[in-house]
Amino acid sequence: MSTPSTDEALDAIVAVLRDELAQERSVKVPGLGTFHVEHQPAAVDSTDEGSRLRPPRNTVAFAPETD
Questions:
Q1: CB of 7 within 8 A of CB of 24?
Q2: What is the model's pLDDT at position 27?
Q3: pLDDT surpasses 80 at 46
C-alpha cells in the first residue's frame, strides 16, 4: 500500500466534510476547530424598490479551536 499524495489526502478530507455536513452533522478537526451547519430562516428584505423574500438556507460555519 502506497502513501497517498497531498492532493489525495485533501480530497479524502473534503469528501468526509462534505458528506457529514450534508447530513447536518458537525465535524471536529483536532487542533483546528469545528465545521458545522447553520440554518438561516427565510426573511423579508425591504429596499427602496420594494420587498424581497430571502429564502431559507443552510450555510457552513467554522468555530476555531481555543487553547
A1: no
A2: 95
A3: yes
- DSSP type of residue 27: E
Residue 21 domain boundaries: 6-64
Q: Which three cell numbers stand for residue 35?
A: 465545521
What is the CATH number for 22? 4.10.520.10
Tell me which residue has cell 497531498: 6
- And the C-alpha cell for 23? 447530513
CA distance 26 to 28: 7
Rg (CA), the chain: 18
Structure confidence at residue 17 as a pLDDT band (50, 70, 90) = very high
pLDDT (average), residues 18-24: 95
